[in-house]
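Quick start: what a row looks like.
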Amino acid sequence: MIYLHTKGFKNSFEKNLKKWKDVYDDLQPQNKSFPDGWDKKLTSFQRLLVVRVLRSDKLTIAISEFVDKTMGRKYITPPPLDISKAYADSNCLVPLLFILSPGSDPMGALIKYCERMGFSNRFSYISLGQGQGVIALSMIERAQQEGGWVCLQNCHLAISWLPTLEKIVDGFDLTNTDMSFRLWLTSYPSDQFPQSVLQVAVKMTNEPPTGLQHNLNRSYILEPLKEPEFFEGCPGKDKAFSKLLYGISFFHAVIQERKKFGPLGWNIQYGFNDSDFQISVMQLQMFLNQYEEIQYVAIKYLTGECNYGGRVTDDWDRRLIVTILDNFVNEKVVSDPNYLFCDIGPQYGLPRRCEYQDYLKHIEQVPVNPPPEVFGLHMNAGITRDYATSMALTSSLILVEGAGSGGEGANTEVLLVQMAAEILAKLPPKFDVELAQKQYPVDYNESMNTVLIQEMERFNKLLSEVKSSLVDLQKAVKGVIVMSPALESLANAMLLGNIPANWRKVSYPSLKPLPNYVSDLIERLMMLDDWYKNGKPPTFWLSGFFFTQAFLTGSVQNYARAKKIPIDLLVFDFEVREIDYEPTPPEWGVYVQGLFMDGGRWDRENGVIGEQCPKLLNDSMPVVWLYPKIKAEFQEGSRYKCPLYKTLERKGVLATTGHSSNFVLAFYLPSDKPSAHWIKRSVALLLQLDN
């Protein structure tokens, strides 16, 4: 049906390229009229398909508007949390389950509801964890007899105790349970949570407020800020306290909102919540009352490093949160009446008067969804955020799509055999490691020989897995061998264009779709083959290595052995060259190419980091010279310390160094702006993109 309606669309698109370009460039392309009368020819749903192809980043907004028009606004507006309604649906045998989401904590609302219902003296709660199961069990047994309420927090942290919880809930009946008894549970989504408890429980979820204005407003209408005795609790320093209070509130909202921007916001998604904010503002009041001078350093340390920073496990995120806080807690916030947290408008400053109501009025002027610059990011980050949201939505739609009918099965099998045959035809044979070892033997003065052999061995292992699994899949489709669960998983991944799980286990990290991954793998194999046949290249393709750190260590090791310097006294220094490939190798160190910049771009004219061009999300770097230097002689200067990651995702398994397994090395790049600017922009180098 869609095909009939869109007949001639391709020809029309080609004839009206300039008009379609205007749609593409528009800030709201989902609402713009389509050229050549296609507005009337396409249904509302078919418009979504065009938006998906043309501007994927606007798909989620377009779908929301589509649902609003066809079904009504209530289907896109989340209902507020109403504990009393959930309580009315429950009874003494039915538990009430809060499904948690990052940034939301229902305990405050539950304790208040408990007081309102007169259960304060008969309400007990415990956060589950190691060894807490026995205490929780005795709480439940006592409350069952006395008719009390029990809340078990963070059930997802006590996986081993959940079967016991299942037995307890299954054992509830009117003979052993008082009618007033209620069991409240809180848990993040977990595949280990007992299904029987999920089925019987009354389920609630409380999404944290979204949007800068809502976040700020929430801070001011909740305790302790709404209490006059707290807000006016710094006699003689009322103005300073109220301004710093607003600064920390704004900081709290900004770090919450940055989570929407994925890896550009934070490498790891942290669960900052109201309790972090409450302890920070209470400590602020304490410091202002106890000391004559305002202790900015202590306030920033406790807020940034302890209260919020206690959740931060990644070193680069820790650097970021401290840098962001500097903008909101400093001397100018108190002394400069015209101080702005972001210099794009007065709504991002402080109100002239410092009464509680003045702050609430000022918050009303703050946009719900301000531009990314307010969070320290470039305007392009908004495209990245919207695109990631849209891709997550389409991935979820694919997962809920039902299996194909029998007629489609035959076509699927033909397609799988074709795909497997195509990939196998493209892949070269495995490297002959024994022959390579003879040509490149272990040499004290040339560590790169060892690097080459090790890389060949790693890629051979990956090649072996890819080839054997594809051959087995072809046999299984033809009925020669049984289609095992592993082969079925392989087939499903290939049909969806994803990298199969069994390949990932022995592969280098990659976020690319399957066709691009195969092309990338072949390029890497060709690089090693060229090295084997023609000797060391003058400029290395850094992205092509399986284990990048081994290559970098080999380069430093060559210098250390030649100069007879202990390797632990050496570090890399960096020089960005002006061309994309150096034909002659350097005397020491290595020339590397193939890097991309995320969050910024390399300004080739001025030789410094620059702002991104509109709609260009990543920029390729010229050749970078990495040369060893003695630590004592290394000078950072005004350069920006820029992390290099393997993929756009940035996060990985946390290593003992405090860095993620996705992290490779910190580069020092020239900058004509303060490092804080690029830290807030989350500027980083990448070995590969996701396309």
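That is the whole record. The two ends are 31 Å apart (CA to CA). Residues 378 and 617 are 10 Å apart (CA to CA).
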